[in-house]
Amino acid sequence: MPSLENPLVVQSDKTLLLDVHAPLAEECRNDLIPFAELVKSPEHIHTYSLTPLSLWNAASAGFTSKNAIEILQKYARFDVPQAVIVWIEETAERFGKLRLIPAPSDEHSANEYLYLVCTSPYIYKELNSQPSVKKLLIPCEYKKTSPEIEVSEDEKKYCFLINLTDRGTVKQSLLKLGWPVKDDVPLAEGKHLDIHIREKTSSGKDFAVRKYQKEAAEALLGNGGPGTGFGTIVLPCGAGKTIVGIEVMTRLQTNTLIVTTNISAVHQWIDELVDKTDLTREMIAEYTGENKTIKPVTVATYQVLTWRPDKEGPYPHFAIFKQNNWGLIIYDEVHTLPAPVFRVVAELQAVRRVGLTATLVREDGCEGYVFSLVGPKRYDVPWKELEKEKWIASAECIEVRIKLEEEKELEYAVATARSKHKIASENPIKLQIVKELVEMFPQDKILVIGQYLDQLDLIAKELNCPIITGKTRNSDRDAIYAQFRAGEIKVLVVSKVANFAIDLPDASMAIQVSGTFGSRQEEAQRLGRILRPKERTSRFFTLITRNTVEEEFGSNRQKFLAEQGYSYRIIRYVDKSSFKELQDCYMIGTN
Length: 591
Fold this sequence. Notes:
- This protein is of the alpha/beta class.
- Strands 12-13-11-14-15-10-16 form a seven-stranded parallel β-sheet, with helices on both faces.
- The two termini are about 50 Å apart.
């Protein structure tokens, strides 16, 4: 029932205003996560938006329009507008109106076609009139399909035939038209592979898959029937997305291709598989720029898959998708999946697949492609919920706002937009602050993260510590990461190459000196570097030059932190005394 104490205002333009100071605000925020997207998050009122894609992601995970409406009505301060209720019902119900199912094969067309069936003559006519999809759809008479798939009488009436190789293209095109396709075509079985999870790791430690990791695998695989076995799992950095992938592998018992972001991440996947399963290193291959072999489990990089000798030519390494009879493809950090991979639509659709990510935000706006080609979101859990259970570390997020030196102000005033960002990011005062923070927190293992290499080189030189950038040889990277994990290095400077899939479990502080233009995706990854479980509270510092574009971009990155429930403290830096309160808290916490 509406109440003035409730935290949510539902507006007729499908925006939701959340009063963060209201008694039920945190509970409401958690309940909005499955079906609403955070738009902005200033101090007092956070704005969410209802979008078709957010509702379809929810619907694919079994979250109904009725569930969404009940949540809005539960927390609404005023009556939920009827127009919003009707829109939610009509939009969510679009999911499932179109389905892909197997078409019968004969001697002329063995497994070359699929049926696209729909429930309404109006949808059927609309698709027939759309040039973008009409060329891919062949009106046909329904004959039969797989016996385990139920087909309604309406669907039998309104039926198209599509080429098997157009499976992904049709799904992409129809999503753009506002018609998400429910894919109920059974997936191909890969070659069998015996793989089991160890009760003790190879180093002798007790090991068990956590409850939420098992739930994520179950949400993906369902009952094993049509419409299951593909999708995206959203879990915080540090929550063990790799273990979810391993759990899926052991449930399917099949040859697996794993694609990840860089060679260091490839090596981490291989180490985790050997440490926590009965696979041997001889059964696992590395497919990278340095080593191109294929075995029952193969770990590749996106970079090698999207390399081509000619800018307009084919991608020679896409052939890996067809090799070795894969039964599962794991897309690590799926929010970074390069656009060229979307072109391998036929191979992407044929086997079970899972995308692993901490955030579905894509800076290129291709969330719809992930939905169509890898699969909809099947499982999500609030970061703060896992923090509460101590599966990830608690974290304090602190923005340090710094003035721009007078001699730089004129240079900034006349600079281009891109140059303004670089001038603000490379504010010389940031070096002084980094040194002060490192000195203040001697017990922490600290990552200094940035965008601009000259700035990072200077910081590493001043701190007399190692630096990892895109130029660092892979063998040197692995050695430095190992030294950091072993405690031989306390401070490490890293460029954006360390944003993804790098496991540094003891890192307890990150100092972000510069970043990509307002990237929430990047903020998620960088915060994730310090969220591995530990006793102490992790601290995530972001250094921002005030009254510059950095403030604007910083506020966009804050959206992600607010969406996950993190408070965001702002300190206006004058001198070292500006950190006195933080230092006092630190001393109390270590005594």
